[in-house]
Amino acid sequence: MDRQAHTTLLSQRPATRGSSIPRLALILGIFLVLSLVLATQASRLAILHADAAREDTEARLLQNTFIPAARGSILDRKGRILAMDRPGYRVDLPYDVISGEWAKARAASHARSSTGHAWAAMSKEQRAERVLAFEAVYNAHLAHAWDLLAERAGVDRSTLDQARDSIVRQVESRRATLVDFWRIREFAALRDQGVEITDEVREQVEKRTDKEIAEQRSNHTVIRALDDDAAFACLLLVGERVEVLPPGVESRADSTADDSLAAAEPGTTQFVETIPGLTVTNAGEREYPMESVDIELDRSTFPSPLRTATSDATPSLFTVHVDGLLCHVLGKVRSKVYAEDAPARRAYLDAHPDVKDRALAEIGRGRTFDLGQYFDDDRVGDAGIESSREHELRGLRGVKSVRVDATDDSSIRKPTRGRDLHLTIDAMLQARVQAAMTPEAGLAVVQSWQRKEPKPDEKVLIGELPLGTPLCGAAVVLDVDTAEILAMVSTPTYTREQLESGELSTNSRDLALRTPLVNRAIASAYQPGSIVKALILSESESRGVMGVDERIACTGHFLPNDPDSLRCWIYKEYKQTHSDFLGHDLAGDEAIMVSCNIVFFELGKRLGPSSVRDVFRDFHVGTAFNLGIGLEYPGELGPPRPDPTQPGRFLYADGEGISMGQAIQMGIGQGPVAWTPLHAANAYATLARFGARVEPRIVEEDPITDAGRVNLNQSAVEQTLHGLWLSVNDSDGTGNHLTINGSREPIFNAKGVKIWGKTGTATASPLKFSPDGTSTNEETIAAGDHSWFVILVGRDRPRYAIAVVCDYAGSGGKVSGPIANQIVHALIAEGYLEP
Which of 236, 406, 449, 717 lies at a 20 to 30 A Cα distance from 756? Predict the structure, then answer.
């Protein structure tokens, strides 16, 4: 290649040298920027980690001791305590503190740490002397600890010494027994193996078996029962630390003195707990002071077969012991925390910000803690009011925070007791009602005079309860003006001891019949029978399907060509009609007085399916009251409907699909309708308020809730109330008298009060039981009619509504009537009615 060509080629090559300088500068700039960003981020992270580490260190230096809080009490309307925490705290100490071994161990450790490097040069005797001197210091510390504990707990020091010595004797005795057992077992095993038991072997076995037992590594209770004040005083000592100086040193300033026992070496002084290992545990229990009471009843107010001569020799007063009072209402607590308790607690706090503000506390830098949080050994409401009001009754723990690197930096937040709740229930009224319904009283027992003589052509009723059988049932007493529940009894009931021991589940057949855990007042389904006739009449006249002055004939049977269906009870019993009996057709109040089925079949027909449904809905059927005391049956209207999504299952009966035939039956409280005793009492209270609806309540702190009005005409209600008055006070009324051995006697015998009421004898489905749960082995264990009596009572106007029902007991007047009478007497005895 010639020179010119070579020059040309060179001129055509890229000028790489000159252009590389800005490119390198750019790369270097980017690198520097990235380095700066990374350095900044690293610095920031280092600072953050340092802050986090510092916060973690601070948190570790802070020791929190939680102080238990008492659960709120539950009281009745008159301030009687129904549920309360029994104060009870126990004080525990580690065994090495109790035995004194703690002082020896600490002395050896402190003696060595305070000597530093000089320890290695000391002789065995010098070390022992130094440890012994420190041991005297720590023994003195323990002696002061015992004195301080006795002072704070309010017990004699001698009492603590006795407890301490007793624990040591028990533990050492158990250890000696176990060591002997271990040695005997090892020697026997060695002999079986053919090993000769020489002194050397014996020494090895004894050394191997000379070991601690579990009790020597455990805490032991030195004080078993402390009240709140003493427990709090002791809790303040938990975690408290003091400085322990070497022997001969009076203060930290003296620790540099020229003393062989106080050489200024690292570890010269140490911080130890004022009372080493002290724990104070809530060992109290939930008590129910009125679960069992004695009640005095007066036989002279009972039906004649249950009375005795009222002479000095045989007084009419007798005492009934009542167990399980208000167990259905109050419920119980459990000492086990379930998985769902914590989420329920959080949900409650989220729904109640004011409570949340009080419950959350800062217990460390940036750390918050719910002082009501559940710990493993906490008590938790498990049923009834105890469960539904758990978060109100639950208290807030106190907390004592102490820095472990200082003795004078601490803070204390006292515990807050849970809220007390007052029920609308009167405990003594409740007890009197329950006493009247016990088998001992005789009113709730199958008696011969309660039954009619069977007719020759009547079949024996399979499942009819034999004479002497205790009757199950329920009663509710409601204040008309406020809808407060004054008493709510379900029999049989149970005691918490029976529940915990499993005694209730010993006989499955009896359990199926009596179901003591079921609160019949709110959770059992009952067909109402004739007690709804008052509601049907007042609504029929208010809706214009019957005139206030109209009269309806009783024809004996509703269907003209079928005398065996839809009959009036008087026709069924005596082949007579009420029109014939009274000598004229019946006005509305007379129809209630004699409980004429034909009149109310007619009103059911006139109302028709839609309006009949609305009548029952007006009086809360189909709605639960959400009292918070357990499962509530809302009541049902109409036939259940097949569930289209699950063949073979049915949807809740909500009032749809009622036929005309069913509407006719519902006019007398039969057919597809069911409710509870609380529904019944509430319906009559609404009637007494001329249609004003107020939600029943059982906790006084809950507000009175206006639930609107039932559109009732005043004239209709007045005629209905007059009919209820005639039913009890007219000699022809079904609730007026008992006929016993051919003689009449009044059902109600309290003087100076006015009573309006209605009986009900409701056809009920037989109760079946199968021991193996199959239909092939089913037997009928109860059959017949449920017995109802619902009344209003007062002086000049209705003040209280009372509903009584007895399962498979037959006549409303003969069985439930005398019980209702005793409830009136109970209201008088407790000051609610002036005789």
Answer: 449
